[in-house]
């Protein structure tokens, strides 16, 4: 009987240091970008709440103005009041 020869596995066990460095750099950059996205999303969330709060404040002022001047359009640049055509404004002074 012939002896079996031991086969040597010539497959590499590791990537090269250069390849590993490239992979690590790319993964690190992906992680940094994802953290930056998270930071922007957190800021966006805060701003959305701020906008919602400001819209609530505007609604309160609109209600007060409607009670005082009736249903009118107010120019936000100079404060002039435009009353609807062919209608009398509800003046509550």
Give me the secondary-structure topology:
Blueprint: H1 17-69, E1 73-74, E2 81-82
Antiparallel strand pairs: 1-2
List keywords for this structure.
93 residues; 4% strand; 2 strands; 1 helix
Task: Decide which structural class fits the backbone.
Answer: mainly alpha
The proportion of residues forming helix, as a percent range, comes to 55-70%
Number of strands: 2
Work out the radius of gyration.
Answer: 35 Å
User: Order of strands side by side in the largest beta sheet?
Assistant: 1-2
What is the domain total for the residues? 1
The succession of helices and strands, N to C, reads HEE
Regions with little confidence, pLDDT below 50 for 5+ residues: none
> What is the makeup of the main sheet?
2 strands, antiparallel
Distance between the termini: 118 Å
Mean pLDDT: 90
3D structure, described in words:
A two-stranded antiparallel ribbon has the order 1-2. The radius of gyration is 35 Å and the shape is rod-shaped. By secondary structure, it is mostly helical. It is built from one helix and two strands, in the order H-E-E. The longest helix has 53 residues, at 17-69. It has one helix at 17-69, and strands at 73-74, 81-82. It has one domain (17-82). Helix content is 57%, strand content 4%. The N and C termini lie far apart (118 Å).
